[in-house]
Amino acid sequence: MNPTISLFTPTPQFANDLADVVRIFWGGAQFRVNEPGGEITVAHTETEENGVRRCRIAMTGACSGCAEKTRGISSDPLLEKRYHKRLIKQALYDVMKQVTGRTPPWGSLTGIRPTRLLYEGMSRGLTLAEAETETRDIFDLKPEKAALLREIIEVQQTLPAPRDDEADLYVGIPFCVSRCAYCSFLSGEVGKGKQLPPYVDALEKEIAGTLALMDRQGLKPRAFYMGGGTPTSLSAAQLDRVLSAAQPFIDRALEVTVEAGRPDTIDAEKLAVIRSRGATRISINPQTMHDETLQRIGRRHTTAQTEAAYALARKTGFSHINMDLIAGLPGENLGMFLETLRWSRSLAPESLTVHTLSIKRSSLLHLWEAQLPDGEMVARMVDAGREEAAGRGMQPYYLYRQKHMAGNLENVGYALPGHACVYNVDMMEETGHVLACGAGAISKRVDPAIGRIERAPNVSEIKNYLERTDEMLSRKQLLWQSDWKRSAPSR
Ligand code: SF4
Hints:
This protein is an alpha/beta fold.
């Protein structure tokens, strides 16, 4: 059901958050805020009395239901804003449960980093188990989802906590050999490769300037990550130049990841360069073992190429390969996903990321509508991914959610003990500084103790990036020059 909804609310600043709650249940719902004419009307009213806020949601029209929630008003304006929004969302969520008869796996939780809620509870003095229970009860999470969050945090707590005097280095290669239909990354096709040489020149310059900034600021290397796009869209010589520019960082980093992504971009020469420059982890991502699906989604490679790429990577000496799979691809059913999981066992990756398909372009939704597995089937795929990972001795170590995900589910990274990727955790939890180079890359300075995060984004257009590389460096410089009281970070 994808109705048009007239939403009447005295707090239009929360209208998008309320729409997100409805879309947990009705993914394509459209909204008119404080305007009549929808097939369904949602009326939000509220009162404040004796320090208590009472919020009521009434739905009328094609569906009907109502719910009321109350909560004491906090004297802290920032906290109060958060609690106020949560109260309205929960009342609306209760109405949606009534009218649909469904309880979604992640309850009323929207937003991408659910582990944050547990960390926030722990920062208030709760134990991890208490924070799990609190989050489960407030947001109506299925117990297995709440338990997943706890397991993830247990693994994260075994990793070296980020320190204020260190930073990750991210290098972005926003190119791919062709464009997958569902791709939401910033990536241009390599085409004849004309943009690559000037891009590598600019990147060398930006990396050198960034390392100099680190030296001036007394920042030590933590994790290195080269992502994209697909970094192996570059030639072996270009990869060598970029990695050698980052060599002083790589030599002292905790871990070094290079995404090799598309199996059809990998050859022995590139792998040898990546290995000799010190990469400890690469990613080779089949997404599915079914060639007909790969064709359908525009990934121009085959399962045979993936197998060859894994064999080559092992021969080159890589002892940590990550594999990405996608649950919910068009034309696939549970049996096909189980086949992919069984097949992936034969390649024995040390870490496995199970994504749920997220489609942001409505044109694709339209094209694939009849072929997309329903939310319940995708949920079974995701569960199967979890069982498969557990069966191989892997532990979940990071999780994020996106909008427009099939079944409103999650993406989870699993790894064998000792193989969790520190950079992935830093990104998800936003507890460590990141210096980022390349078009569209975003540098971050964080103070987790007070929840402060400041960002310096690079321009995303490649042409602009080439023309304004010096300015990208200045943006990072400014980020670290700003008056910022440093305090002991905690994960
Ligand atoms: S390989 Fe990845 S980055 Fe490249 S087009 Fe496909 S989804 Fe996008």
